[in-house]
Amino acid sequence: MTLLVAFAGLLGLAIGSFLNVVVHRVPLGLSVVAPASRCPGCEQEISARDNVPVLSWLLLRGRCRNCSAPISIRYPAVELLTGVLFAAVAWNVGLTWALPAYLYLAAIAVALAAIDLDVRRLPDQIVLPSYAVALALLGVASVGTGDWWAMVRALVGGLALLVGYFVLFVAKPGGMGFGDVKLAGVLGLYLGWLGWSELAVGAFLAFLLGGVVSIALMLTRRAGRKSRIPFGPYMLAGAVTAVFVGGTVAQWYLGLFGLGTV
Predict the structure, then answer these.
(1) What span, in angstroms and rounded, lies between the C-alpha atoms of 185 and 189?
(2) CA atoms within 13 A on the CB side of 16
(3) Higher pLDDT, 181 or 62
(4) Among candidates 91, 96, 89, 58, which has minimal Cα distance to 75?
């Protein structure tokens, strides 16, 4: 298990480096493959030795080797967060058929949250293909484990969150973007595959986290009642949290009423 977690963490660091490219280029409609990454200050192509996740930023002290332009701390932060999430997913899921599916979820969670915070948008270029990827990877996991009921739950969960968010979108115009609706279906697939408890906890946590942060921003006067706050990061944070502790939280909550989990 230790080797698996370590390998997943290193893989996550490398994927995180690529996600930085995705976060920057996808909202601009640019290719994530070419051209090679360059310093926005001097336009010099970044060499391989200066493109090592996290380590290069530390060694360069957050500045370009050629022109000394500052390099945002977000770059190593995205790499480190992805590495930690990959390691955590590997530890939680183990070397199972479901591991690739939830590593993919961790990757898009980081990318989409960063993009939504930047441009208040969840790009279709990432969200829509994620339906096909989720169905394929979760389908393989169901074949590998022989648990077809998990795939049924995934489909029901995806549809439930998609419809639920669509109803909220129609009922309260401006309350959330349609990108949130489309993302809800993807998250419902992943949470539903794990279980009804994870689905319920993940859906609830999105609104809890969003509400708590919104209140905090208003109390500190960093936002007002009419401020538009991206909801995608809270949806993603709630879903990822539920992957790890959804079953435990549901068991604890229902235990308060003398009930069992499903």
Answers:
(1) 6
(2) 26
(3) 181
(4) 58
Report how far residue 217's alpha carbon sits from residue 203's, in angstroms, rounded to the nearest whole number: 22
pLDDT in tens, 187-242: 999 999 999 999 999 999 999 999 898 888 788 877 666 667 899 999 999 999 99
Task: Answer positive or negative: Cα dihedral of 38, 39, 42, 46.
Answer: negative
pTM value is 0.93
Contact 183, 235 (CB under 8 A): yes
**67, 41 contact by CB (below 8 A):** yes
Taking residue 35's Cβ as centre, other Cβ atoms within 10 Å add up to 8
Contact 13, 92 (CB under 8 A): no
Q: For residue 184, how many C-alpha atoms fall within 13 Å in the half-sphere facing its CB?
A: 25
The pair of three-digit structure tokens given for residue 132, joined into one six-digit string? 């096909």
Furthest CA-CA distance within the chain? 65
Nearest CA to 122 out of 104, 107, 135, 109 is that of: 109
Helices 99-119 + 178-194 axis angle, to 10:
160
